[in-house]
Amino acid sequence: MDIGLTRDMSAPLAVRLRPTIISELLGQQHLLQQGSPLMRLIQGEEKHITSVLLYGPPGSGKTTLAKMIAHSGSRVFVELSAVSSGVAQVRELLSEAQRRLTEEAKETVLFIDEVHRFSKAQQDALLPGVENRWVTLVAATTENPSFSIISPLLSRSIVLTLRLIPDADIAILIDRAITEPRGLDGEVTISAQAKESLVRLAAGDARRALTYLEAAAGAASGEITTEVLGRAVDRVIENYDRGGDTHYDVASAFIKSIRGSDVDASLHYLARMLESGEDPRFIARRVMISASEDVGIADPGALGLAVAAAQAVAMVGMPEARIILAEAVTYLACAPKSNAAYLAIESAIADLRLSKGGPVPAHLRDAHSGALRDSQVNAARESNAYIYPHDLDLAVAQQQYLPDALVGTEYYHPTSHGYESRVKTALEQIRKMLGKSN
Questions:
Q1: What is the CATH number of domain 167-232?
Q2: Multiple choice CATH, 28-161, 3.20.20.450, 3.30.460.10, 3.40.50.2000, 3.40.50.300
Q3: Rounded to an integer, what distance in angstroms lies between the CA atom of residue 93 and that of residue 100?
Q4: Distance CA 135, CA 322 (A)
Q5: Ramachandran region, residue 172 (left: φ > 0; alpha: ψ -120 to 50; beta: rest)
Q6: Residues of the chain with CATH 3.40.50.300
Q7: Distance CA 120, CA 385 (A)
Q8: What does the pLDDT profile of the chain (438 residues) look like in tens digits?
Q9: 5: helix, coil or strand?
Q10: Which CATH number fits the domain 340-433, given the four candidates 1.10.3710.10, 1.20.120.80, 3.40.50.300, 1.10.10.10?
């Protein structure tokens, strides 16, 4: 199904390579299963199509899908700018769509890119048209619709979530762009290393991949190399293999710099990973681990900040995600450090692997456990009854919690760093009250 998009060879490469048939689409396979809402819309199987909100990162195909939906059947396609359009223009467009539907029996598909930029008043102005089906709204946004779109409009639409284009599909797109007549028509080639670098730099953004490729092709003399690509996109393209040694070396240096409280080195390795096209979600996961393993109880708020950063990175995407990661990394590098919680769980696991432990003390067992039906266990439980800590003034009950074989074992040894110094003082008193320390 050709949707009649421009093939003006003076247009940017990303425009010329925009898919016109379903078979050309790359990525978003989770939305393109036969019989799915999106496929029914594209294939024109819906007589009256539902308004759609396409939510996803830049370069994931939102505009392409919108135009495929719009050009299915004999619908009139109208595009509105969320940046330059006011309420008056929205109302005028809806009035024309109503007239077209009444007098010509033609449906209008209204496409709005970056709809999150519409004010509440502008979004409110859309409601009559959507409610009465004067227009079918197909809107694209990079921001979570739950936060950026008003509830009445959200409830009248289906939300389709797009994902970053997989690296394998970006590589196919690069090959297609180089060889196809509507692309570069074989005027240049690209080295394997440069192609790998371009895939990394694209970071799942098809438009970015084609923009960088076009810039590099203009600077190349026959072959696009990593040096040509680096000059064209004004970046240092280093030999960074995300599946090889460099990936692990830089990630290791990144974590060790945070652990060592060198904020400048931490930011250097963060920038190095980002500029080399590392997945920001991978970095965010490493930051969360560092918050627990290296900062720990010395600053318990570090983990919460790291988790919030990871969620924000997933919602916002690059390039703004770099700012979120920089804030989290700076905080962690400057925070007091303690690996006491990490060492504690490692020590506890080591004891279990050495078969240390034994049965749970009888007075701690579940009262509904089948084991408690045994008269000997019941007798043991009654002779050493469980003490409910909240019945005591300080809510600390002196009773045995560890299995017999581990009585007296201390896994957690707090440091005197940051907040953990307060924990250390409190824990010394608690252990005395439990009869664990002299």
A1: 1.10.8.60
A2: 3.40.50.300
A3: 11
A4: 38
A5: alpha
A6: 28-161
A7: 62
A8: 444 444 566 789 999 999 888 888 898 888 888 878 788 877 766 555 678 899 988 889 998 888 888 777 677 888 887 777 788 888 999 999 999 999 988 888 888 988 888 888 889 999 999 988 898 888 988 888 888 899 999 998 899 999 889 999 999 999 999 999 999 999 999 999 899 889 988 888 899 999 999 999 988 888 999 889 888 887 656 555 555 556 778 888 999 999 998 889 899 999 988 887 788 888 999 999 999 999 999 999 999 999 999 999 988 888 889 999 999 999 999 999 999 999 999 989 888 888 888 888 888 887 665 554 555 555 555 555 788 888 888 888 888 888 888 888 888 888 888 888 888 888 888 888 888 765
A9: coil
A10: 1.10.3710.10
- Strand order from edge to edge, sheet including 135-141: 76-81, 108-113, 135-141, 51-55, 157-161
Q: Structure pTM? A: 0.58
Instruction: State the Cα–Cα distance between residues 183 and 193, nearest whole angstrom.
Output: 21
Q: Which residues of 112-133 are buried (b: 16+ CB within 10 A; e: fewer)?
A: bbbbbbbeeebbebbeebbeeb
Residue 171 CB neighbours (<10 A): 17
As annotated, the residues of the chain forming the CATH 1.10.8.60 domain(s) are 167-232
- Residue 58's closest CA among 199, 196, 206, 182? 206
How far is it, in rounded angstroms, from Cα 162 to Cα 158? 13
Q: Beta strand 223-224 with 189-190: parallel, antiparallel or unpaired?
A: parallel
Kind plus residue range of the DSSP H or E element containing 202: helix 192-202
Evaluate whether 119 touches 147 at the Cβ level (below 8 Å).
Answer: no
Q: Measure the CA–CA gap between 33 and 40, rounded to whole angstroms.
A: 10
Residues 251-334, CATH architecture: Up-down Bundle (1.20)
Tokens standing for residue 322: 């770099």
